[in-house]
């Protein structure tokens, strides 16, 4: 268990993140049902100066990929799906450029080589701004709405060759869940993921929803030095509804409830959980911060040189959203960091990591 002095240093780290990166949100650290630390800073709604609380609900961006992965693996457990089945045989993709060799397993690990609906491999901000200029993003309401953005693009590489982060893979997985269950994607997650995990404050909400305790998202305006000079709402800068590759709304407590329910077998049998969490493919070729980086089924892991998993979970970033959800096996600790300001949780998450594992 971290020393109390270590936990006592976290508020200072949060304050620095607020000062330098515009962090505005919640930090929650738990072991089981015991809250080791909680911290709240900033505003859920800036115009009326509404402060965050521990019950604030945030969009969590790509952290939602973990929910989609669980939904897919549940269908495998029900005998409705084979992970090695080609996705073109399960969905109507014959007239697309998606290879007949791309499997469901490869979509889960992002090794299928398919084009993405939004290319995150280059200048993220420039590419996103170009998409906003050239495509009516407000029309992206269902998983199928994303298909025209990538279905006819050339493949990035042959199936199975390597990993490349890819949201379109999870869009296809969401469509697959809908196809096999004959139910809307959101309905399936509510019944089979959020419900069993007791995630009572989690849902797939449109951006315009009049839902209680949901934080508005904010994008920083910066001067020539990079200093934050103001904020704008993200209403024209992000997708209007969640999809299978991201965008659920949750509290920090619900995110931790998810990781705990997953480990406890409330969502999948133990063997399936082990399969999901297994670090399968290299997310990065080189070490970063001294760790090996691996991707499983909707799960990011960092490992030491002996192959021991130090931390697993997922990141989430979009304009007006910055999220981290991590489990530390050796400490049996869960960390959830939720912010309603762009790109503000990452450095803070590493600062907390360094405090937990000095």
TrEMBL record:
Which controlled-vocabulary keywords does the entry list?
Membrane
Kindly indicate whether the keyword Membrane belongs to this entry.
yes
Domain named Beta-lactamase-related: which ranges? 19-342
Is Ribonucleoprotein one of the keywords?
Answer: no
Can you list the GO cellular component terms from the UniProt entry? Answer: membrane
Pfam families tied to this protein:
Beta-lactamase (PF00144)
Compartments in which it is found: Membrane
PANTHER family assigned to the protein according to its UniProt record, in alphabetical order: D-ALANYL-D-ALANINE-CARBOXYPEPTIDASE/ENDOPEPTIDASE AMPH, PENICILLIN-BINDING PROTEIN 4
Recorded protein name is Beta-lactamase
The species this protein belongs to is Salinispora tropica (strain ATCC BAA-916 / DSM 44818 / JCM 13857 / NBRC 105044 / CNB-440)
């Amino acid at each position: 268990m971290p020393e109390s002095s270590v936990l006592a240093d976290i508020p200072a780290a949060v304050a620095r993140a607020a000062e330098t990166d515009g962090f505005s949100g919640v930090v929650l650290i738990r072991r089981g049902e015991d809250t080791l630390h909680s911290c709240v800073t900033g505003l859920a709604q800036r115009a009326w100066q509404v402060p965050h609380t521990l019950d604030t609900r945030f969009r969590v961006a790509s952290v939602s990929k973990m929910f989609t992965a669980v939904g897919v693996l549940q269908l495998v457990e029900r005998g409705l799906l084979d992970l090695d089945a080609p996705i073109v045989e399960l969905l109507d993709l014959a007239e697309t450029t998606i290879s007949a060799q791309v499997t469901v397993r490869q979509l889960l690990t992002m090794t299928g080589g398919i084009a993405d609906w939004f290319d995150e491999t280059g200048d993220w901000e420039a590419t996103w701004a170009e998409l906003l200029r050239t495509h009516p993003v407000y029309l992206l309401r269902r998983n199928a709405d994303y298909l025209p953005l990538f279905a006819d693009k050339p493949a990035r590489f042959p199936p199975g060759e390597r990993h490349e982060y890819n949201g379109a893979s999870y869009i296809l997985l969401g469509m697959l869940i809908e196809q096999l269950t004959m139910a809307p994607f959101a309905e399936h997650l509510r019944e089979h993921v959020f419900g069993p995990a007791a995630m009572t404050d989690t849902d797939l909400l449109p951006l315009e929803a009049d839902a209680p305790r949901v934080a508005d998202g904010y994008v920083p305006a910066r001067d020539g030095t990079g200093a934050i000079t103001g904020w704008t709402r993200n209403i024209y800068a992000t997708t209007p509804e969640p999809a299978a590759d991201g965008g659920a709304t949750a509290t920090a407590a619900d995110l931790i409830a998810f990781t705990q329910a997953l480990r406890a077998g409330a969502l999948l049998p133990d063997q399936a959980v082990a399969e999901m969490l297994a670090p399968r493919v290299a997310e990065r070729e080189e070490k970063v911060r001294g760790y090996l980086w691996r991707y499983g089924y909707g799960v990011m892991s960092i490992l030491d040189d002996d192959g021991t998993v130090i931390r697993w979970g997922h990141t989430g970033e979009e304009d007006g959203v910055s999220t981290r959800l991590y489990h530390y096996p050796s400490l049996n600790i869960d960390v959830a960091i939720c912010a309603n300001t762009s790109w503000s949780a990452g450095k803070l998450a590493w600062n907390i990591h360094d405090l937990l594992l000095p």
